[in-house]
Design a protein that fits this description.
It is a single chain. This protein is mainly alpha-helical. It has two domains: 66 residues; 30 residues. It is 94% helix and 0% strand. It is built from two helices and no strands. The protein is rod-shaped and about 95 Å long. The N and C termini lie far apart (95 Å).
Length: 97
């Protein structure tokens, strides 16, 4: 192979490598965007899951309050404790004023 042919081959290889680099940059950009969208979707889904858990717990507590179940007494005790805590907090706030 002559030196001119080697130079042409080298230029072709460099051109191919530059094109491949550009293709890879575009792919990385697309993957980064996809990753961002999936992360946002995951955060939204997680928030939705937490809200559903809260709703489930509220419904479970409401059911326990009206149903004649062993949980009813436990829920009553828990609510009574919570009310006492809130009452004490209000008393403390009044004392600070």
């Amino acid at each position: 192979m002559s030196s001119e042919e080697l130079l042409l081959s080298l230029e072709k290889n460099i051109s191919n490598l530059l094109q491949e680099r550009e293709n890879l940059r575009q792919e990385v950009s697309q993957l980064t965007d996809a990753n961002r969208r999936q992360r946002e979707e995951m955060i939204r889904t997680h928030a939705e899951l937490e809200e559903l858990k809260r709703e489930y717990n509220q419904l479970r507590m409401a059911h326990a309050m009206v149903a004649d179940t062993p949980e009813r007494e436990a829920v009553k005790r828990q609510l009574t404790r919570m009310i006492h805590i809130v009452d004490k907090a209000i008393e403390n706030l009044k004392a600070v004023e």
